[in-house]
Write a structure and sequence with these properties.
The chain is about 30% helix and about 25% strand. With about 120 residues, it is α+β, with helices and mostly antiparallel strands. It starts with a helix and ends in a 17-residue tail after the last helix.
């Protein structure tokens, strides 16, 4: 997956705002950042998940891994864009979106049910 494809996928979720910050793009819903493109480097992204959703994501696809240190233990999850399957990424982004939006705290990987209908 390319960074442009990641960007387009995130913007399919309802009420998402993209905010450039230095060399990254932060994605926010309800004024809370749930994903960042370009961190820690080009070709990577970070998604903030509940601890339970992070455990599921790490089992789902080897392209996901917990960030080292205390942030990783609190759900901050790295994703290699080159290695991730798009359907897996869409599921995990939806989880991060739900947590940040307050729609449902944490929860199971449930697909793109929060995506805007086309």
């Amino acid at each position: 997956m390319t960074p442009d494809a990641f960007h387009a996928l995130v913007l399919q979720l309802a009420a998402v705002r993209a905010k450039p910050v230095l060399d990254t793009i932060q994605f926010q819903v309800a004024a809370r950042t749930f994903a960042t493109l370009g961190w820690p480097a080009t070709g990577w992204a970070v998604i903030k998940l509940s601890e339970a959703d992070q455990r599921r994501a790490l089992r789902l696809d080897p392209a996901f891994r917990a960030e080292a240190g205390p942030r990783g233990r609190r759900g901050v999850t790295l994703v290699s864009l080159e290695a991730v399957r798009q359907d897996h990424l869409a599921e995990v982004l939806a989880c991060g979106w739900r947590q940040a939006s307050g729609t449902r705290k944490g929860g199971a990987l449930a697909g793109q049910d929060m995506a805007r209908s086309a």
